[in-house]
Design a protein that fits this description.
Layout: H1 7-37, H2 42-55, H3 57-62, H4 73-85, E1 90-94, H5 100-112, E2 116-121, H6 124-136, E3 143-147, H7 150-153, E4 161-166, H8 173-180, E5 184-192, H9 198-204, E6 211-215, E7 225-229
Parallel strand pairs: 1-2, 1-4, 2-3, 4-5
Antiparallel strand pairs: 5-7, 6-7
Length: 231
């Protein structure tokens, strides 16, 4: 069974991706211009953005209240596949945004026989829209979106984590990972999109910390990093 192939969910995701592309187009053009100005090195711009976040991540993130900043359809299908392959029943998502990635993961939970996705999102308007999108997808019974700082909302996730998606404020990637780390089951998958924060990458790429990590050849400009908890 693959819920992504159902006409209702397929059409719903297509509409959301189209809406996301239209809403984010001006921001994407701005980022591309800044990358070009930096000599084509996305790492240079990413380092500056991480530094800006560290100074005031709430202010930096609040400017994206109207942006989807969503995963691509290709990466969404990858999320679904990993969740199915790992037989995930408890998923944690840092950075729900408008809920597109949440829908891919919750669809996998449905096809795995059930479970719970615990999401965290700081922007109230995004929380409301994400809940609407997830309800329209028919997946609300599998999702608990918590509004607020992830360092508070994800402190208690109620059990072992099979899969985590980290895709929120870049400066919080490592603190969020360390917060949920005690709840990771052996073999848990950790997927990080826009994984440009050096402290996060250094941590998961050091085998001494219990991870096997690699950069994914999917939407490579987004810095998609995959890791497995091996400790």
């Amino acid at each position: 069974m693959n819920s992504l192939n159902s006409p209702h969910l397929s059409q719903h995701l297509t509409r959301l991706h189209q809406e996301a592309e239209a809403a984010d187009a001006p921001f994407v053009r701005q980022i591309m211009a800044r990358i070009e100005a930096a000599g084509g090195a996305i790492e240079t711009l990413a380092a500056q953005l991480v530094a800006d976040e560290r100074a005031d991540y709430r202010a930096a993130y609040s400017g994206h209240a109207s942006h989807f900043l969503s995963v691509s359809p290709r990466y969404g299908r990858f999320l679904y596949a990993v969740a199915r392959a790992s037989k995930a029943t408890r998923i944690v998502e840092f950075g729900t945004s408008m809920g597109i990635s949440t829908i891919y993961l919750a669809a996998a939970l449905r096809d795995n026989g059930g479970g719970l996705l615990i999401g965290s999102e700081m922007e109230p308007t995004k929380v409301a829209r994400a809940r609407e999108h997830i309800e329209a997808a028919g997946l609300s019974d599998l999702v608990d979106i918590r509004q607020g700082n992830a360092l508070d909302t994800l402190r208690d996730v109620g059990g072992a984590i099979d899969l985590a998606l980290i895709d929120g404020a870049w400066s919080l990637y490592l603190p969020v990972l360390k917060l949920i780390e005690p709840q990771l089951r052996p073999g848990a998958a950790i997927l990080a999109e826009n994984a440009f924060a050096e402290d996060y990458l250094d941590y998961i790429r050091d085998p001494a910390n219990g991870y096997l990590a690699m950069t994914l050849p999917i939407d490579e400009s987004r810095g998609n990093e995959f890791a497995v908890w091996t400790a």
